[in-house]
Amino acid sequence: MNRSSKRHAHSLVELMIVLSLLSSLITVSIGWIHQSMKLSKQMNSRQAHQTNLTRLTRMIRDDARTANDASVDGQTLELPSLQVVYQVDGPVIQRTEQIDASTTRTDVFELQPGSRVIWNDTELPKAITLQIKRSSGTPIPSRLPQTNEPNATNSDTTDRNDLNLRMELNRYARFGVKP
């Protein structure tokens, strides 16, 4: 009897090793896919927030440059000469413009949760400042070296400025530009 020295099959141990390696690779790759999807969602949220801030900045600058006067009452900015009102309601800024007696235009700007809107009217009647600050709500690890002192802070919980906009009122009229 002449037996061939070639093997035609794999042993059970070899198959178990290959299957365990494949399952480990699949587990790691699922973690990477989940993490990349999470980062993609965060980036889309940030992009939408930046787009809303850009739209808000453009519209409020144009309004302020053509407005003769402005008044701030709490969370409301009113531009009576243009019949435009900016109303803050939580993480939403709503712009309402009275075009004529029966037509009203409303624009809504959604901000990220935790955003605070601050109208600074100390420079009225020449200018007004809009600040949008955001707090993440969770401490962010500080870049400062860690300390073991009981009263030292090892985290940075300060507010982040998303927007700091100073607008001059009636700027177009002062420079002779027609909007």
UniProtKB/TrEMBL annotation:
Region Disordered: start-end pairs: 135-163
Top-level taxonomic group: Bacteria
Keywords: Membrane, Transmembrane, Transmembrane helix
Polar residues bias locations: 135-156
Membrane-crossing residue ranges in chain numbering: 12-33
Protein name: Prepilin-type N-terminal cleavage/methylation domain-containing protein
